[in-house]
């Protein structure tokens, strides 16, 4: 039998060509530049700022802004939930990379952590029993006053001349304290109160309205002093978000308005 020598000579070339084509068709391996960085955000999980919904998805004013910023930076997000009073200790202990939870930018806090550029402006509200005649801050003198532990309002109520001050761990606890008569007036984030009462109407309490906040505070995200790369990334994408229609859309979705826009 005669062997076709031409076929045997060309077979290696055919195999090599097929291997080359196969290599070209294979997807390129992910490089370090392509990989998403995982950023852990710390939140006390209080609506309407930064909280997880029934399906475990991050939402809220700060939550939705963060998701836009994370997408802009090509970051993945992990949520770490803790009490508001332990947000800063959790950050400095490296349990999280950034605080995303309607935190007021204050000089005292800036001694411990860095803050991003302001995300928006938000002031305090006053919650009182439905039959209360309180209309201004002057009217709370001599009354029992309440606030949430770890917030700027915890220090603020001590300046208002109340007969006693009491502190609570959550917004729900504050509302319950006013409802059951533990306190005569509670000071906390106006947006939180408004959102809470919309979600769960309560005819035993009311928000003082109209009301002019004592300090319409600037809200920002907090990072560790050394994490300048995270700080720069957030600030760059926050600036882009503010020039888009999405920024005001998020504010209005949760009951805020142009008055809450930070420059």
From TrEMBL:
Record bears the keyword Signal: yes
Domain Solute-binding protein family 3/N-terminal: 38-258
Gene3D superfamilies: Periplasmic binding protein-like II
Keywords per UniProt: Signal
InterPro entries the UniProt entry points to: Solute-binding_3/MltF_N
Signal peptide: 1-25
Keyword Transferase appears in the UniProt entry: no
Alphabetized PANTHER family for the sequence: ARGININE-BINDING EXTRACELLULAR PROTEIN ARTP (PTHR35936:SF17), MEMBRANE-BOUND LYTIC MUREIN TRANSGLYCOSYLASE F (PTHR35936)
Protein name: Polar amino acid transport system substrate-binding protein
Source species: Alpinimonas psychrophila
């Amino acid at each position: 039998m005669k062997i076709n020598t031409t076929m045997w000579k060309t077979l290696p070339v055919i195999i090599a060509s097929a291997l080359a084509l196969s290599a070209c068709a294979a997807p390129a391996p992910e490089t370090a530049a392509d990989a998403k960085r995982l950023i852990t955000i710390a939140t006390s999980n209080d609506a309407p700022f930064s909280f997880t919904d029934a399906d475990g998805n991050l939402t809220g004013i700060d939550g939705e802004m963060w998701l836009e910023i994370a997408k802009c930076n090509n970051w993945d997000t992990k949520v770490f939930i803790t009490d508001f009073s332990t947000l800063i200790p959790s950050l400095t202990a490296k349990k999280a990379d950034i605080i995303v939870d309607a935190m007021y930018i204050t000089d005292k806090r800036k001694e411990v952590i860095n803050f991003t550029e302001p995300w928006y402006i938000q002031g305090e509200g006053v919650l009182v029993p439905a039959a209360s005649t309180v209309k201004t801050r002057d009217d709370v003198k001599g009354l029992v006053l309440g606030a949430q532990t770890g917030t700027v309002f915890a220090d603020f109520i001590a300046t208002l001349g109340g007969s006693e001050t009491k502190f609570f761990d959550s917004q729900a606890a504050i509302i319950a304290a006013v409802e059951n008569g533990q306190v005569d007036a509670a000071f906390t984030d106006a947006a939180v109160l408004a959102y809470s009462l919309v979600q769960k109407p309560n005819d035993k309490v009311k928000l003082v309205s109209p009301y002019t906040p004592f300090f319409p505070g600037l809200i920002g995200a907090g990072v560790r002093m050394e994490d300048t790369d995270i700080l720069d990334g957030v600030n760059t994408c926050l600036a882009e978000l503010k020039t888009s229609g999405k920024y005001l859309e998020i504010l209005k979705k949760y009951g805020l308005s142009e008055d809450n826009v930070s420059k």
